[in-house]
Specification:
Strand content: 15-25%
Distance between the termini: 24 Å
Helix content: 40-55%
Shape: globular
Number of strands: 5
Structural class: alpha/beta
CATH class of one domain: Alpha Beta
Radius of gyration: 13 Å
Length: about 130
């Protein structure tokens, strides 16, 4: 099976959220990689960079913050689509994400259907 260019990396330290989002993307026919920390996500991205077209990351991660992860992924593969999420109401989090190289910010709690819709729009797959 050719999986090149059809993978999503879901980075979330809360198991229930990560598993639900991963399942949702699998139902949409994506290959899904999962990580619980920023460092784990970076290693996974390095290993599968040719396949991964979308990074969905929580911004409050252990080991390496989501903003740093976004910057590093953007530097490694500039055309990767990146969505950041956060449940923390920091006033300027959206601006920080966009400045770091993110494409879209979705506050938590988010509606999973909305997440898929935004992802498909970013990927040109409406």
């Amino acid at each position: 099976m050719d999986t090149s260019g059809n993978a999503v990396l879901v980075v979330e330290d809360q198991d229930e959220i990560r598993k639900l989002v991963a399942l949702l993307f699998e139902m949409e026919q994506f290959t899904v990689y999962q990580a619980t920390t920023g460092l784990q996500a970076l290693h996974t991205f390095e290993e599968h960079r040719d396949e991964i077209i979308l990074l969905l990351t929580d911004l409050g991660l252990p080991e390496m913050g989501g903003l740093e992860l976004v910057e590093r992924v953007r530097a490694m593969k500039p055309n990767t689509k990146i969505i950041g999420t956060s449940g923390y109401g920091r006033q300027n989090i959206r601006e920080e994400l966009l400045k770091a190289g993110g494409d879209e910010f979705i506050p938590k709690p988010f509606v999973v259907d909305e997440l898929v819709k935004i992802s498909k729009r970013l990927l040109g797959r409406s």
